[in-house]
Amino acid sequence: MCGIAGLFDTRGKRDFDRELVRRMNDIQFHRGPDEGDIHFEAGVALAHRRLSIIDLSTGQQPLFNEDGSVAVVFNGEIYNYQELVPELEALGHVFHTRSDTEVIVHAWEAWGESCVQRFRGMFAFGLWDRNRQTLFLARDRLGVKPLHYALLPDGTLIFGSELKVLMQHPGLDRRIDPLAVEEYFALGYVAEPRTIFAGARKLAPAETLCVRRGEPVPAPRTYWDVRFTLDNPLSLGEASLQLTERLRESVRLRMIAEVPLGAFLSGGVDSSAVVATMAGLSSDPVNTCSIAFDDPAFNESAFAQMVADRYRTNHYVETVKSDDFDLIDTLAALYDEPYADSSAIPTYRVCQLARKKVTVALSGDGGDESFGGYRRYRMHLMEERMRGAMPHGVRRPLFGLLGRVYPKADWAPRVFRAKTTFQALARDSVQAYFHSVSILRDDMRRQLFSNSFRAELGGYNAIEVFRRHAALAETDDPLALIQYLDLKTYLVGDINTKVDRASMAHSLEVREPLMDHELVEWLATLPSSLKVKGNEGKYLFKKALEPMLPNDVLYRPKMGFAVPLARWFRGPLKARVREAVLGDTLAATGIFNRDYLQHLVDAHQSGARDYSAPLWTVLMFEAFLRQAGVQQGASASPVAAGVAA
Question: Of these four, 111, 116, 170, 265, which has the most CB atoms within 10 Å of its CB?
């Protein structure tokens, strides 16, 4: 695992400031503390920070082909590199290392841009081919590894693993993108391909960008997508056997390392499945790490201990105090742009613990999306059945009216909390799912933003992120559609971002067996009835795991990796929230309606409403502004900030 950075003159061969490139590389030292190097030639600079995992002695980067004409800087792992080496050697390529990185330069020589289709792994890389005068950027299929880039007005293309790398360049347009702000307050993150800054972009998952000197910079190209065909005729028993074998293969590939290796163990189904599989593949006890909470409402450590005891792992546990809120500014600096998933706090802590014991940790991330594990999936399917019973032309006015007049009753038993359901029934499927996952829903964002900022948005709504992906989903199956949407949005923008930054802050490599693209492709062929059955999510996964895990782990209610925000904001953080939300930093932006900010604080702290999630979202935006030193009141126009087709 590493950090990469680079500069490329798309128009000529200007020399780049060596001190600037060193700053770009050094700002991501945490991603690769073992080694670092920089390569300069006319119009090109490539920089790399290395966390040594495979081929410790000869895997240094930038890494070159035989004659030095092709160079690569790479972050991630190519898990099938051992299979590709003999194939490339048969084509005449000579290897000088045992590193998976060297496979990339020879695969580029052999297969060009399509080389990425041969890679099985998590990766982001920048490759320079002097003979073709070409810079090639690529990101893995599911967006496990990040890659940011910007094209400056003078024709310089800059790229880096983290946004803070690009922020070192004085030419980067750091005005706030209004459309990114709208996406953030709806989703809790800025969705690919935007960043919070008008001048920077994220390369989206399964995209490449191939830039040839002297030619216009093209739009990124997509090289892969998942197709939910749902047409695999396997029985439950056959699917269970195949799933177990596919999981074993995915885990086995991710256990290749020359450094200490272990796994996160939360006590949930996904991480427990990974640990159980690792135990079956290893002759030595597996190293496992868990976080316990001193608040029983958030503590899953007993279930993690069950799995650790069953497989006799070397289990390490640390207890996090329920008032562990000192990380707010640390997280804002870590994520570089607004990021509102409060589970980043325990994720940061479990990565901190794991790094004391191992350099590589396997996780269970990605299981909910592919296996159908989220509670919101079951709620959505229930609403879909109700929507299907009545034409949209009837539903929209009827339930739209009920949604407007029915009182919001967060305090009441769930059966009486019908306002949200009425609102959902008035919408189409994509609108309803977007509504269900939004942190601040449409009506709240309208009240949150000032009149002038809403004018800057020009009518843009973050639902367009979902619409864009839904148009490519090629399925009308209710579950498959929202799984596809989550694979494109929530998994990438929230889960993968959280884990990458939290782990890399501690120089820890995290590998995700449940995000293996071949496993994801296979699961997408299975009917939705094997994923959600009645009120049981992850139906197939749990059935396949019954011989491996206790029923108390498999069939208990999902708890999640949460922190007690509501209590914090009425107790130990009461004054801080009020100061941040109502203070000068947010006021100076001109983005917000102060009366509504006042309402959020007062209603929450009086106990009248639970606004903990919206308040955390605002709090993290304020912390971002302070950490980034963004020019106050400066934002880009919606047109200028738009995403190129």
Answer: 265
Same domain, 216 and 317: no
* The last residue of a domain, from among 527, 554, 581: 554
- Phi then psi for 310, rounded to 5 degrees? -60, -40
Model pLDDT, residue 406 = 63
Burial class (CB in 10 A: 0-12, 13-18, 19+), 645: exposed
Helices (H) and strands (E) in the chain, counts: 28, 17
Please report the pLDDT score of residue 35 as a whole number: 80
pTM above 0.70, yes or no: yes
* Dihedral pair phi/psi, residue 18, rounded to 5°: -65, -35
Q: Say how far apart CA 339 and CA 465 lie, in whole Å.
A: 17
**Lowest-confidence region among 187-196, 331-340, 628-637:** 628-637
Answer yes or no: do 215 and 313 share one domain: no
Is residue 351 annotated as part of the catalytic site, yes or no? Answer: no
What's the CA dihedral at 55, 58, 62, 63 to 10 degrees? -90
State residue 399's pLDDT score.
Answer: 62
H or E element in which residue 361 lies: strand 360-362
Mark out the alpha helices in 428-582 (DSSP H runs).
429-437, 442-448, 451-457, 463-470, 478-488, 497-504, 517-523, 539-545, 551-554, 565-570, 574-582
